[in-house]
């Protein structure tokens, strides 16, 4: 290999500076709450705020619900398309890419018009059904990543042979799906799941417009009213995102999942 | 024909209920007046100065952050793939890019306020060490340039993630063949690399464009509602019908879908073109 070029080092150094400085700035700012000295008080204030734990817990549950619902929707569909209905593949793929075209704010606008409390299906009429609507929206937002991860995972296993082998051993459809197919795409599902978690945990648009007590609207509230706590929250959010991506890397080391790109 | 189609009923019903019907409702509503009659008045209403300027600012911020993001993302990807930097920097950059491309929304806004806000770290260091008053130059984090600079934090990493595999796909044989045929390094880039990479470069730029065009949380966290982006206008419209015409709101949403739809369609077309080469 050639000697490193000056230009490459320069680009890399500028990149490091651009990406590191805001992180350093965030940490430094979050420590400034006491005049003249650094302290962790901003973190103390955040972590002792019950609203922080309530909203974080709410969004974490929403993320888990999104992952479970999304997986139960995507895995059987991807399996069935591969096994029995390959002709429908372009349509399914197009639908899973649509959320990249339709911004979240447009999606939730449609929900509010279609499912408001005086409509044919008044989903925003009660808190629990609004939660269902919000999770459905999150599943839609996660579809492009989840479907691609699962579909790529299925490409690396021979769905047809596995199914025939299981059938000839007398397994029922549900057994095949849950005991044969799911375990084989587990790593793909997991990397899709952590990405989904990272997206849902701080999501603002849907939660705010559906008026749910989620972490995103809480962040907005703190951001509008406090000086130093927002940087503490930003640092915590960065750590959560980092943890999710780290877990993806960890699972992607499994050779079966190496081809998964999300 | 068997009952095989039953297996995809859940997926298609879900898509119909939570993706297709809500979107269709807005699209149809954009062409209706309050009594449900067909009209083009809502689309004409988009010519209002407030709405035109909202679209203009959104387009400018998205274009600026997409072009700068892809230019710098390309440089970074080039540096780690072909620039001869130590090999261990590459997985580090890619892992960080995975994190940073998902670090958006309100926390990102907070990070940039803490760094470049009026009392942010960089602002105060520039002032106390170099005597340079950043805010004296007219710069403001709550503005077009501030927002663009902030969006680059997720745009650059996204470009790096998409472009690194494309740069990996440049085969050593191509460079060797070009060199044997007497091409200079510039000639190799001009006649071999760029014709292969441009669809992917341009396509990813369009993806970045759509990515920032639909974004709202970062802008909302940074500027509140001082910067009149189309997403922020739509947010206000959903909250309280600030345009005093629900159907104009549908038209506003339709305009957004058309813009992101066109740029994504071009992206997919260009990606298909690129994949012919990278086998």
UniProtKB/TrEMBL annotation, chain A:
Superkingdom assignment? Bacteria
Q: What is the membrane topology here?
A: Multi-pass membrane protein
Q: Does the keyword DNA damage apply?
A: no
Which coarse location class describes where this protein primarily resides? Answer: membrane
GO cellular component labels: plasma membrane
InterPro entries in alphabetical order:
MetI-like, MetI-like_sf
Q: Which GO terms describe its biological process?
A: transmembrane transport
Q: Which residues form the ABC transmembrane type-1 domain?
A: 52-251
Q: In which compartments does the protein localize?
A: Cell inner membrane; Cell membrane
Q: Where are the transmembrane segments?
A: 7-31, 51-79, 91-112, 132-150, 188-210, 230-252
Record keywords, A-Z: Cell inner membrane, Cell membrane, Membrane, Transmembrane, Transmembrane helix, Transport
PROSITE patterns given for it? ABC_TM1
The entry assigns this protein to a family as follows: Belongs to the binding-protein-dependent transport system permease family.
Q: Mind telling me what this protein is named?
A: ABC transporter permease
Originating species? Lichenibacterium minor
């Amino acid at each position: 290999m050639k000697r490193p070029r000056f230009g490459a080092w320069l680009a890399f150094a500028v990149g490091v500076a651009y990406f590191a400085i805001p992180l350093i700035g965030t940490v430094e700012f979050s420590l400034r709450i006491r005049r003249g000295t650094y302290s962790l008080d901003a973190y103390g204030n955040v972590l002792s705020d019950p609203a922080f734990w309530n909203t974080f817990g709410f969004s974490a549950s929403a993320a888990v619900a999104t992952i479970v619902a999304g997986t139960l929707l995507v895995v059987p569909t991807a399996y069935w398309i591969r096994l029995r209905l390959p002709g429908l593949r372009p349509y399914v793929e197009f639908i899973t890419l649509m959320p990249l075209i339709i911004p979240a704010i447009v999606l939730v606008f449609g929900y509010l018009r279609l499912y408001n409390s005086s409509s044919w299906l008044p989903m925003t009429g009660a808190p629990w059904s609004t939660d269902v609507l919000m999770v459905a929206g999150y599943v839609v937002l996660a579809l492009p990543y989840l479907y691609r991860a699962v579909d790529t995972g299925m490409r690396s296993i021979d769905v047809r042979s596995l199914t025939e082998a299981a059938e000839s051993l007398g397994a029922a459809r549900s057994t095949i799906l849950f005991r044969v197919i799911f375990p084989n795409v587990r790593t793909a599902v997991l990397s899709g799941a952590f990405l989904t978690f990272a997206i849902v945990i701080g999501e603002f648009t849907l939660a705010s417009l559906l008026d749910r007590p989620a972490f995103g609207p809480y962040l907005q509230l703190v951001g509008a009213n406090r000086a130093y706590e927002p940087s503490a929250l930003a640092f915590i959010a960065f750590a959560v995102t980092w943890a999710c991506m780290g877990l993806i890397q960890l699972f992607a080391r499994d050779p079966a999942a190496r081809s998964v790109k999300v | 024909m068997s009952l095989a189609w039953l297996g995809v009923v859940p997926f298609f019903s879900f898509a119909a209920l939570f993706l297709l019907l809500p979107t269709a409702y807005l699209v149809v509503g954009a062409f209706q007046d309050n009594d449900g009659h067909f009209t083009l008045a809502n689309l004409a209403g988009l010519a209002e100065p407030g709405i035109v300027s909202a679209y203009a600012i959104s387009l400018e911020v998205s274009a600026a952050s997409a072009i700068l993001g892809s230019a710098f993302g390309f440089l970074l990807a080039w540096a780690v793939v072909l620039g001869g930097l130590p090999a261990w920097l590459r997985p580090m950059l890619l892992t960080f890019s995975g994190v940073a491309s998902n670090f958006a929304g309100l926390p990102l806004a907070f990070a940039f306020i803490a760094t470049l806000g009026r009392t942010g770290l960089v602002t105060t260091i520039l002032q106390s060490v170099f005597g340079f008053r950043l805010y004296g130059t007219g710069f403001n984090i709550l503005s077009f340039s501030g927002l663009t600079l902030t969006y680059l934090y997720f745009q650059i990493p996204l470009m790096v993630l998409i472009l690194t595999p494309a740069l990996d796909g440049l085969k050593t044989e191509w460079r060797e063949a070009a060199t044997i045929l007497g091409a200079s390094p510039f000639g190799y880039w001009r006649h071999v690399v760029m014709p292969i990479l441009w669809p992917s470069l341009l396509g990813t730029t369009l993806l970045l464009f759509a990515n920032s065009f639909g974004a709202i949380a970062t802008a909302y966290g940074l500027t509140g509602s001082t910067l009149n982006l189309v997403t922020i206008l739509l947010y206000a419209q959903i909250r309280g019908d600030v345009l005093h015409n629900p159907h104009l709101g549908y038209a506003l949403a339709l305009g957004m879908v058309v813009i992101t739809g066109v740029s994504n369609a071009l992206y997919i077309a260009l990606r298909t073109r690129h994949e012919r080469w990278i086998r």
